[in-house]
Amino acid sequence: MKVMVAYASKYGATQGIAQRLGKVLDECGYEVDVVKCADIDRASGYDAYLVGSATYEFNWRKDARRFVERNEAELSAHPLWLFSSGPLGTEQVDKDGKDVLEGARPKQFAEYSDTLHPRGMQVFRGAYDPDKIRGADRIIAWMPAIRDILPKGDFREWSAIDAWGKSIADDLQSADARP
């Protein structure tokens, strides 16, 4: 069974998550291609898809949104999972007591849920290294109000990413996952 893991990443954290998911699926016996959304026009020839993006201001990156729009028919006809990365830090709940990962769901999860019917949607924590920031983001990142509130570090929870990848592999093995 062939699986595509397509991603849009700005500074590499989401790319790392996509690569890790691809590795987990590969180790479970699937033929996996991990590709940038911007590098592929048409997604065809795969039995299942995972699509993910970094999230900024509750939106997926443009490359991921365009990829989904171009390939809506193909994606909706096969088993599909969506993932996102973004929240920084280790807090489980925000100041209002709400789940941080649930609160970081991109708008696209709700939009794509109705049209693509994904089997699962997951938000993962991201990473932030101010030394990697470039372009206009660098100006914003060094503003004292923003610089002081953004926790620095790699907050990706590899065990959660591995577990989600294994649950996808298990789902693909079930008879009803076959296209």
Automatic annotation (TrEMBL):
InterPro entries: Flavodoxin/NO_synth, Flavodoxin_dom, Flavoprotein-like_sf, Protoporphyrinogen_IX_DH
Domain of life the protein comes from: Bacteria
Name of a matching Pfam family: Flavodoxin_5
Residues covered by the Flavodoxin-like domain: 3-169
PANTHER family: PROTOPORPHYRINOGEN IX DEHYDROGENASE [MENAQUINONE] (PTHR38030), PROTOPORPHYRINOGEN IX DEHYDROGENASE [QUINONE] (PTHR38030:SF2)
Listed name of the protein: Flavodoxin domain-containing protein
